[in-house]
Amino acid sequence: SFFREGCLSPISPEAWPLVQSFICHNRTFILDGHVQLKTSLQTQERHLFLFTDILVVAKSKSHSHFKLKCQARLCEMWTAFCTEEVCEGSTDPERSFVLGWPTTNCVANFRSAEQKETWLSFLQSRIREEKEKDNPKRIPVTIIAKDVGTCVYSKTLSVTNVDTANDVILMALQQLGINGSEKDYKLWVISGREHAPYPLIGHEYPFGIKMSHIRDAMPHGSKHCACPRQLQESFLTEQLPQELQCQFVLKPSQVAVCQQLNDLSQKSFKRKRSIINWAFWRGPGTHLDNAPLSTTSAAPGKLFGLLLTTICEDDNLPKPLL
What PROSITE patterns would the database entry show (predicted)? Predict the structure, then answer.
């Protein structure tokens, strides 16, 4: 039996072309519904389709026709409630929660509290069940510590499929012998899929993020499987094409950085740098210049292809960046 809500079309969703394209012998349609997905200042009207092992996000063209926008494996997804860290402006907590997959966080805003609770319950249940199928349930994840002291450290941790980013931060700090808590540091993902490093909030699953890259490197036909039968050792030791690699970088959080800057500001400098020069300056030994996924290949002195003097007023960075 299927649970479904909010469909205006008299045609059963199981008969819709998009749904039909995903149904197969080991995949069942469960639920569909309209949602607003919010990220930062952006709000998008979308339609969600929940299957036993994947979530499909689509844009409605009519009552029964949809354009596929993205799909995510449930075993690589997460939910949370830190809506204020994902989107700007107020969000009704009775109708919203954070929904994420590698490497995306967005606020899912539903039409009613009942609809939100239904989706949250189904998603959390299905995510748990799909994670139970994970094999292996523990993989090696290498953490690179940057801007921590005067050296760049690297440590490989054994991470399970239920360890959050905050859990991994604490493990890395302990292994590296660094004092501090998960509030003092951020775990960043450098992915061949993305144009820039992505900071994790803390609730995400690094296991799922790395496994999503591994599964995408699997031969066609097995890449969408939640539990591939064979995982070559090379996949687990970072031997992936550059566009399918991901790295995890541990860096001080913004609060810690601000404190460091305040401490530095108490000292005298022979040469002062503006906040713009500081933010875009690449000092020797402080960055991973030789990292295989270096994101510093863009033209120096530019941001999104624009001159800094064009987007900065009175020597200040734009407010969204700050």
Answer: RA
